[in-house]
TrEMBL record:
It is found in: Secreted, Extracellular space, Extracellular matrix. Induces bone formation in conjunction with TGF-beta-1 or TGF-beta-2. GO terms for biological process: articular cartilage development; bone development. Keywords: Disulfide bond, Extracellular matrix, Glycoprotein, Growth factor, Leucine-rich repeat, Proteoglycan, Repeat, Secreted, Signal. Belongs to the small leucine-rich proteoglycan (SLRP) family. SLRP class III subfamily. It comes from the Eukaryota. This is Mimecan.
Length: 298
């Protein structure tokens, strides 16, 4: 697989035209020097080696593999610059690595403090481990083709209401490891939402934040400060709420209290470990589930 990636990148580099982050094209033959090509090839080889180690680790973990790892952390920064040139000399789009609908802007130097300008055809954005502080209404207003946004490990403390309102194709949104205290309205076609390791409280999550997301499958809200379980759509299969401040649940939290025959077939995994709530006090609250939630029972 590593050889294929390198060959693919080599064919990409040899192409005379590359789409840059402003949406314009630049002549790569006249801009990109041979030593800069070596920088990209060495970087790709290093990243592939790291990915292979992570895949092997996940296979070794087996059943203990945490499903929240559906979003892998960004690759670790190299301790020294790649041999053959200075990455800071690369054209802007190559600093972000733009590849046919995908934009990778991870651990950018100099520091990236705002969402970068994106090509209008962008479908996948990975801007992990930067210093982005805020998401505005303008950041994604013209990028209606987005299907996945990963902003893990930034400093985001504010998202303007309506920032994602035009993203009708967005399926995966990862805001883990930020400083969020409230959530905006989310796109209706989301299948995966990850806000693990933020500062969310129940008052910062609107009552219908997830209720209308009829295609949502994975919901990760672990390691926050939520006091109650939010409304969970029927489509959801995995819910992670570990390490919050949840103290109480009810018959309506997961099931329908007035219907003892109701079965919830989709919800397969619920994590409530690390919360103050004592689950054994609410035995009738899980009758509709195929398996008991993970958490404190005594």
């Amino acid at each position: 697989m590593g050889t294929l990636r390198v060959l693919f990148l080599l064919s990409f580099i040899s192409s005379p035209w590359v789409l840059c982050s402003t949406g314009k094209h630049f002549d790569q033959d006249s801009t990109l020097r041979l030593e800069q090509q070596d920088v990209l090839l060495n970087r790709e080889a290093n990243l592939e080696a790291k990915r292979s180690k992570r895949e092997a680790a996940a296979l070794w973990l087996g059943e203990d593999y945490d499903s929240s790892m559906v979003f892998l952390a960004a690759d670790e920064p190299d301790n020294a610059p790649a041999e053959g040139g200075d990455a800071s000399e690369l054209p802007t789009c190559l600093l972000c690595v733009c590849l046919t609908g995908s934009v990778y802007c991870e651990e950018v130097v100099p520091e990236m403090t705002a969402v970068p300008t994106l090509p209008k055809e962008t479908a996948y954005l990975y801007a992990r481990y930067n210093k982005i502080k805020k998401i505005t209404n303008k950041d994604f207003a013209d990028i209606v083709t987005l299907k996945r946004i990963d902003l893990t490990g930034n400093l985001i403390s504010e998202i303007e209401e309506g920032a994602f309102s035009k993203l009708t194709l967005l399926e995966e949104l990862n805001l883990a490891e930020n400083h969020l205290v409230k959530l905006p309205m989310l796109p209706g076609k989301l299948t995966t939402f990850n806000a693990n390791h933020n500062r969310l409280k129940t008052k910062g999550v609107k009552a219908n934040a997830f209720k209308k997301l009829e295609k949502l499958i994975n919901l990760f809200l672990g390691d926050n400060a939520l006091e109650a379980v939010p409304v969970i759509p029927q489509s959801v299969r995995i819910v992670h709420l570990q390490n919050n401040n949840i103290t109480d649940i009810s018959f309506e939290t997961f099931c329908k209290g007035n219907n003892t025959y109701y079965i919830r077939p989709n919800l397969m995994e619920v994590r409530l470990d690390g919360n103050p709530v004592l689950l054994s006090k609410y035995p009738n609250s899980f009758t509709c589930l195929k398996s008991l939630p993970v958490g404190q029972y005594r």
